[in-house]
């Protein structure tokens, strides 16, 4: 075990810096917390598993505007309620009125 000794003033300075960093992080996330508490968000893999579709089909749903999504740090997220609504509407792949052809 290695022991490192530092001055108390340096330790107190580090504690204050960490406290300020924590406060900044809490302030930055505070406005987004209600958004994530209201709704459960799913990533690509979770949506594909839930809908039993491929990633390519999911991309087609996004391209056609059938499934809204939000992008955060280059990753797509979908509201569970939107995915559930699409599931309840039936597989949109087999209808002609939304631009898809029957398969």
UniProtKB/TrEMBL annotation:
The species this protein was found in: Chryseobacterium shandongense
Ranges annotated as spanning the membrane: none
Annotated protein name in UniProt: DNA-binding protein
Keyword Endoplasmic reticulum appears in the UniProt entry: no
Alphabetized InterPro entries for the sequence: DNA-bd_dom_put_sf (IPR009061), HTH_17 (IPR041657)
Annotated Helix-turn-helix domain residues: 41-89
One Gene Ontology term of the molecular function aspect: DNA binding
Alphabetical UniProt keywords: DNA-binding
Domain of life: Bacteria
